[in-house]
Amino acid sequence: MNFTTNDYWEEEFENYSDKNLDKIYFDNCIFVKCDFSKSVIENCKFTECEFINCDLSLSKLKSSTFNDIKFKNSKLIGISWSSCDEPFNVEFKACNLSQNSFHLMDLRRIKFIDSLIKDTGFEECNLENSVFDGCDLEQTVFINNNLKKSNFETSKNYLIDPKYNDIQKAQFSLPEALSFLSLLPIKIK
Question: pLDDT tens string for the chain (189 positions)?
């Protein structure tokens, strides 16, 4: 199924698979089991929407807004979020965010919950007060980010270099916090 108009309000879409979304406004909509993988999403606005069991893998996001959006149990592999317009206010719960790119983004207070965030890049982002709750961050790179007051207490496999990220008052837990020692020019026996 494809979208037929450019404005939707309080609608639910199930099993849609449009591959070219251009200049469409979605307000308070729910997407269930939609396949937008390999789609081009350009100049769209999503406000107060939910994506449940959807696949947006390898989508190209261009000049689109995601404001007060919840992704649940969704597959979001290989996405560059950096070309989205502000505001960008998103929560990810039980999602696969592998091989994503977040570059120069304002991600304050963003929540990543019970998600796989493997081989993803966070570069020069403001992640102040962000939450990584129960996430696996294997091979994910953090470079020149503001991580002040961020919470990584229940996440694992992160490798965050304090020389290249501001981690003031960020929260970590043992044994995962020992990863900081691997970045020092020391030998531990």
Answer: 788 899 999 999 999 999 999 999 999 999 999 999 999 999 999 999 999 999 999 999 999 999 999 999 999 999 999 999 999 999 999 999 999 999 999 999 999 999 999 999 999 999 999 999 999 999 999 999 999 999 999 999 998 999 999 999 999 998 888 787 777 777 777
Radius of gyration of the chain (CA): 17
Q: What is the pTM of this model?
A: 0.93
Q: Which of 181, 137, 184 is nearest to 150 (CA)?
A: 137
